Amino acid sequence: MCTNQNTGMDAGHASLTVPETVVRQPVLWWAGAGAVFLALQAYVLLSWVLSPDFASRGTGVDPVPAQVRTSAWISQFNSVVAFLVCAIYCVRRSRREGCLTWDALLMIGGLSVCWLDTAINYFRSVVLYNAYMLNWGSWNAHIPGWASGSAHPTPEPLVFVTGLYGWWFLLFSAVFCGVARRLELHWPRIGVLGLVLAGVVTLSLLDALLELIFVFSGLYAYAAVVPGWTLWLGTVHQFPLYGPLILGVLCTIVAMLRYGARKQRYSFVERGSDELPVSAPVRTAIRILAIVGFMNTVFVIAVFAHWWIGSHAEGPLPVPSYLVLDNADSTFNCVT
Fold first, then answer.
1. What's phi and psi for 220, nearest 5 deg?
2. In a domain, 118, yes or no
3. What is the pLDDT of residue 335?
4. In this predicted structure, what is the pLDDT of residue 2?
């Protein structure tokens, strides 16, 4: 969603002082948070790239099954293709409308939380990626205060993960908006709460479907889970039911931004950006930072939820060496 309204600065009549009402605009607070998050992840990623940790992790002594190798390549290819499709769509739409569309903002915001992908491993190993996928180690150990002992050998499949975060929130937001429009059409009085509940249910189921495909394809495994809330407990395919619920809530919150923006020009995070006495490019940059700040904040809250639940989890699960845990030796003795 684009707007091209001119402010006083655009027209050449900007004041030297910023009105107090402008300073209070929520968009500036969110943009400030976005700047902090970007600075932090820039530090983390740069220190990782310049360290010995920036190196591919091997699969260890356990052979990677043929079907797992095939799934890994297909999944990485599909993730990149989906990313490119979304990027082309956002670029074309933005060029047609003459400014950065909201879906483009959403895609940028999604990419900005990629660095938090395995932050649920902050205190203990919870999720383990398949080292057969393209990886250059992990930046986890460079996140300030990282306490998990398996930070260094945890591989981050950069191609798969970067592609995934480029399309994930776009897909989930589009699904939510489609469901919300139909619900409001048939039940005009459903209200915000009804839309949120419907979104959480729908997006939790969608997340569960996608994650089950990933887990049973051998792309990653959950090493520590809460037994009473886990399917296929004790196997390499064990799947915690609370994971999709947390992500369902997260994606619903983000999707509500898109839904509100499509109906009211701006999401509540961007409210007040039109009143800022700055040029159009600067205003767009502020909106980007605001979305980045909001999405990183919500993602961190979701990570905290995983941490709290993880404090009640049992593990770690013994896994084959290509699902790197603490070393390259096989500890694979669980039921498959």
1. -160, 170
2. yes
3. 46
4. 63
Give one DSSP letter per residue of 242-291, joined into a string: HHHHHHHHHHHHHHHHHHHHHHHSS-GGGTTGGGSSS-HHHHHHHHHHHH
Q: What DSSP line would sit under 80-122, residue for residue?
A: HHHHHHHHHHHHHHHHHHTS--HHHHHHHHHHHTGGGTTGGGS
Q: Residue 73: which of 133, 161, 130 has the closest Cα?
A: 133
Cα(143)–Cα(155) distance, integer angstroms? 15
Examine the pLDDT at 48 and tell me if it is beyond 50.
yes
Q: How many domains does the chain have?
A: 1
Residue of higher predicted confidence among 22 and 118: 118
Where b means 16+ CB within 10 Å and e means fewer, 299-329 reads: beebbebbbebbeebebbbbbbbbbbbeebe
Q: What is the pLDDT of residue 17?
A: 41
Tell me the residue range of the domain where 187 lies.
25-310
* Spatial distance between the Cα atoms of 284 and 34, rounded to a whole number of angstroms: 13
Q: What average pLDDT does this structure show over 20-27?
A: 62
Give per-residue pLDDT as tens, 136-186. 999 998 999 887 765 555 789 999 999 999 999 999 999 999 999 999 999
pTM recorded for the entire structure: 0.88
